[in-house]
Fold:
Amino acid sequence: MHPNTRSKLWLTALGWFAALVIFFPILWMILTSFKTEINAIATPPVVLAAPTLENYVAVRERADYIHFALNSIIISFGATLLATLIAVPAAYAMAFFPGRRTKDLLLWMLSTKMMPAVGVLIPIYLLFRDLHALDTRWGLIVVYTLMNLPIVVWMLYTFFKEVPKDILEAGRMDGAKPKQEVWMLLLPLSLPGIASTALLSIILCWNEAFWSLNLTSSNAAPLTTFIASFSAPEGLFWAKLSAASTVAIAPILVFGWMSQRQLVRGLTFGAVK
Amino acid sequence: MSTVVLKDIRKSFGDVQVIKGVDLAIEDREFCVFVGPSGCGKSTLLRMIAGLEEITSGELKIDGEQVNDVPPAERGLAMVFQTYALYPHMTVADNMAFSLRLAGVSKEERYQKVRDAARVLQLEPLLERKPKELSGGQRQRVAIGRAIVREPRVFLFDEPLSNLDAALRVQMRIELARLHEHLNATMIYVTHDQVEAMTLADKIVVLQGGIVEQAGTPLELYHHPRNLFVAGFIGSPKMNFLNCTVSAVEAAGATVQLPGGASLTVPVHPGPLKAGDQVTLGVRPEHLRPSETGELQAEVMVVERLGGETFLYCQLAGVGMLVVQADGEVATQVHDRIAIKLNPVNCHLFTADGMAVERAIRHPLADLRRPVARKAG
Structure:
C-alpha cells in the first residue's frame, strides 16, 4: 500500500472515531428518548428494546413545546439580526478606517466576554424589573444582542479584513457613498462570513440558559427553560428529559445541518486560500 | 481641458511626513508619469489626487478649481488599480457600468457606453463573464474599460502593469500608449519601472523621499539629469559614476583628471566650479566604447551577451566597477584587459553636493514633445 494512502486511511479512521465520540452523547440521548423509564436506567444499558413514543406524549402533555420553540426562534433570530445590524457598520469602520485606538477597542470588546455573567445579574435583573422587561421576548433579545455583539463584531471585522481595500476604493472612485459601498460591495463579497457569523450567533442564543432562566418564566421562556423544567423536584426522569432535549435541539440541529457547508466555509475563510 | 496643479502638497501620517511639499503642473492631455523607488511617495501622491488620501496641506486644483475637500467621485477622475480591483461578484458589463448605475444613468445609455468602451478594448465577447474567468491581461483591460466608461477628466493609473508577466506588460504598454492617443485625455501614471516611464510619458516626475527630484520630458531627464539621483535612476543599466578632480576651468568646459591619469575636458557651463574641486563624472554605459585609444584601462569581470549588444562589467583599478555597452559582435572575454573610450560630449559632471553642472550643449531632443493629437472622431 502506498504510504500516502495508508496515512490517509488512518486519518479517516481517526476522524470518524473523533466524530463518533463527540456525537455519542447526542446519539445516546436520542436513543434514550425512545425507551421506557425503566430501560433508560437499566444496567447493563439496553440499546433499543421495545421503542416507545410515550415520553414524547408525556412531554407534549406537560408543556406547550411549540410555545417555547417559537420563543427560541424569535429570540435567537431577532437578537442575531439586531446584533448583525449594529455590528456591520462597526466592523466596516474598524476594518477600513482604523484609528489609533481601534485594536484596543476590539480587545476591550472581547474582554467584556471574560466577565462572568453572574457579576451583572443583580443590576440587570433590577433594570429589567423597572423597565418591565422581565419575561418579555424583546428583553431577552436585547440581552442576547449585547451578549453576542463583541463576537459578532470580531468575526465580521475578520471577514471584512479579507476583502481587498482596493475594491472598496474603486467603488468610492466610481461614486459609491458609504452605504452603497457596504450594501453593494462589502456585503455581497463577505456573504459566507456573514452567514457563518449569524449562524454562530443563532446557536449561541439558542443554547443560552443563564439569562433565559433568570429573566423569563413563562411568556417569553425559550427551550432552555423548557428543558430545565424537566429536571424537576420530583426527581430525574431520564427518558422524558431525553425526549424533551431531543425536541429542543431538533430545530437548530436541522438548521445547522442544512447550513454546514456555509458554516465550514465561513469558519475557514481566509485560513484556506 | 483638464489640467492638474499641485501647490506645496504635503502629507503626514502621524508625525511622519511622507510628501514634503510637491509643486507640479500637469497640462491638458499630458501623459504624466510618477516614477521613483518604492516608498518614495508616488502612490500616496496619486491617491491624494484621487481623493483616497487626505491632503495634509497644500492646494490641489483640477481645471483651476480647488478640490482638496471634494469627494473622490466628484473630482471627475477614474483610477486603474494595481490589483485591478474588479468587483468579483459582478459581470464585466456590470463592473464597467457600476459608476453609471450609481450616477442614475438609464439602462439603455449604460449599455451603450459599456458597448462603446468594450469595442475600443476588444472586450465585447467577455461582457457576460465574471472577473475570475478572465486572464490577467483581460482583467487589466476591464479595469481600464471601467475607467473609460466614466469619461473622466483625468485618468489615474497606479502601477497597472506590475502584476502582468513581462511579455504582456510590453503589449499592454503599447496598448496604453495607443489608448492615450485615442482618448486624448490627461493621464497620471505611477510606476517604479523606468522603462515604462520613458516609453509612455510626456512628462516624467522623479520622486524620492517625498520630494520631486526632477520633472521633465523623458529625454530631458536622460540627457540633462538635475542631480546624481535622477542620473542614476533613469537609464538602464544605470549611469557609471567616477570620482575626479577638476584640473582646469575655462569657458568651453571643465577639465577633469580621470583615474589612471588621463584628462578630459567636459563641455559644461562651469559656473562656480574651480580647479581642485572634487566632482563626480557620470557617463552612461551606452556612451562608453572599448577602444585602443581609450582613456581608461580596466579588466573585464563579467560579460553579458544579449545578442544585439554586450554588457561588459569592468574593474577599474582602485575605483570600482564600470559598465560598458559594447557591440554584440565584440569577442571580449572575462579577464581581458581593455581600454575604454569616453566621449566628453556625453559626459556629465556633478558637484560634491550631487547637483549637475549645466551642460554646455542642450540636447536637440530634450524638449521634444509629442505632437498634440487631433481629437479622434
In short: The longest helix of chain B spans residues 166-183. The interface with chain A takes residues 50-52, 71-74, 77-79, 81-83, 85-89, 98-99, 102-103, 146, 150 of chain B (CB under 8 Å). Chain B has two domains: 4-231, 237-350. The two ends of chain B are 17 Å apart (CA to CA).
